[in-house]
Amino acid sequence: MYAIVRCGGRQEKVALDDVLTVDKLDDEEAGSSVTFPALLVVDDGTVISDPAELTGYQVTAEVVGPAKGPKINMIHYKNKTGYKRRQGHRQKYTQVRITGIAKA
Known about the structure:
By secondary structure, the chain is mainly beta. Helices cover 4% and strands 66% of the residues. The two termini are 16 Å apart.
């Protein structure tokens, strides 16, 4: 059984006990529970994509902890003017473990 869920503006394919890296969730601590809306559910070859049926499905996850993306370095340079700037960025994420895909 697996599901397609919407999290952070993207769609992710999840199954039971998958660890997923999503955009930083505000006010979520390690061990707390989160629910995601299901967009599609596949259960033993049965595909459920009707929005009326999907409102009954809940995908629950437990927050594992924070995570960070790779460091991105940017350099701005303009020729012959002496303009040079360095800038860095590191995106913050939250890791979640899928604990259940069930009909509510």
